[in-house]
Amino acid sequence: MKTQAHRQTHGSVLLIAILTLTILTGICATTLYITTQNTNSTSQTASWQAALSGAESGVEHGYYALNKNIWTGWQTVTGSLPNVQPTGGTAATTAPTTGKYAYFVQTLQVAGEGGGTVKFWVTIDTAGLALDRNGNQWYRIRSTGLAAAPGPPRVSNQKQDNDLRKISLRTDRLSGLALATPQAARRIEVIAAPVPSSVWTRGITLRSSLTMNGTGIIDSFDSSNGLFSTNHFYDLSKHLSHADVGIVNSTGSDLKDRYVYGNVAYSGPAIKNTKNVQGTISSPFPATILNTGNPVWSSGTYTSYSGGNLPVATVTATATGQPLLIKVNGDFNVPGGAVFAINSSALNLSANQPVIIWVTGKLATSGSGVIVQDPKVKVTWYVDDDITLDGDSYHNLSGYAANMNIIGVGNHQANISGNSNFVATLNAPGYDVSVSGNGSFVGALVGRTLDIGGSAGFHYDEAIAANGNSNAIANYSYASWFEDNADVPRGQTY
């Protein structure tokens, strides 16, 4: 009896040991499976991120080629874009034209988890995009980044990750071709918009913020074309949508959902409340806005006034057929009830002969003081301090903004107000500009900041840029950016 009980005890211990080992083996197997799956998921995640870095590098190469016009290593091919890495072609020397594309291929070494190398291939083509109004071509940049996904060709245990990342295990999801080893493939498509170098190809060019605190709009017209103006004056019923805005540093910009009939390009944080921008919104806007400076005049070539108010009279020309140069040493202020006339006949000027007035202080009118500019005179003002004018006090009788130009030098304020339109161009990159009242600014403007308030609007005259080096391109900005996550139907290319 004791022997039988002893054997039963030993049998129970053996059974418990076997069960324990089985359980431990299952735990170990499960742990190993989970660990392997997690490792696989981590590796695929790293490869997925590396593929994106590759695709973004391709986009940067595309922008570099367009912006610098350097095409070393690029090939040009006739035909539509392929869905696999292109081959062949001829060495590219310029951006591709319609019916062609340029491509570039590079392999990069990367550190860390995931694949040890990342390859990208990038193409540039016109994609059927139209020319802008200055005759400049928009381009499509499409970049594909590829990174090896180490490990067996199986999905991870993270279903949502699998759905998001779409790792190509046995078939390239972009081309539909079979793969020897798993890989991550990501594709980015960008539309590159040309940024003209001339500031007058845009209505508003700013170094810093734009705020619209009033009820007015920003739009354009063409004083040289009767279809888009009335007697060369702005007409709302004939307005256009080419009042482009460029902002180098958009910090603090807020359009308050006012209507902007044109494209907006900016660098910096996203501009607030832009739902009523009728054109494209793109970034960056890496234009360089040059500082302004005073004219350099030789001794004896200009008429100089002492500081304070100019004589309230018609200025007198000193030489027929030459630009009339006037320097005001100090402030130029037309007091209430006075009129300062710039008259072509009294000045003995020929047609469109320029008048240049250099004010070393402030330029202003006060009360009912008025500056009247003859319609046959083209005047350029250089101002070294604050500017205070409005459409009621400065009468540009020609009605053409190109005939009245103000160049602000240094860092100051410019206040444009009143109930009538102020027709001029203002190039004052260091000035904080405000436009208010019931009148509008008609022409083009360069400033540091711009605040449009009241019911005032801004109407860009496109005629200013008609012969203003409008075809010169400073660089290209991002008009759109998206990642193409779609799977291509197997056996089909696009």
Poorly predicted ranges: 311-319, 490-494
What spatial form do the alpha-carbon principal axes imply? elongated
Tally of helical segments: 3
For the biggest sheet, the summary is: 18 strands, parallel
Strand content: 25-35%
Overall pLDDT: 82
Relative helix content: 10-25%
Q: Ends: how far apart?
A: 86 Å
How many β-strands, per DSSP?
28
Radius of gyration: 34 Å
Query: What class do helices, strands and sheet pairing give?
Result: alpha/beta
Counting copies of identical and different chains, the oligomeric state is single chain
Describe the structure.
A hairpin with a 7-residue loop joins strand 3 (100-109) and strand 4 (117-125). The protein has helices at 2-68, 159-165, 344-347; strands at 75-78, 90-91, 100-109, 117-125, 139-148, 183-196, 204-206, 210-212, 218-221, 245-247, 264-266, 281-282, 303-305, 324-328, 332-334, 339-342, 354-359, 363-365, 370-373, 378-383, 387-390, 394-396, 404-408, 413-417, 422-435, 441-452, 458-461, 473-484. It is elongated. The strands form three sheets. The chain has an 18-stranded parallel beta sheet that branches. It has a seven-stranded antiparallel beta sheet with strand order 2-1-3-4-5-6-28, covered by helices on one side. By secondary structure, the protein is of the alpha/beta class.
Short note summarizing the structure:
The protein has 494 residues and is of the alpha/beta class.
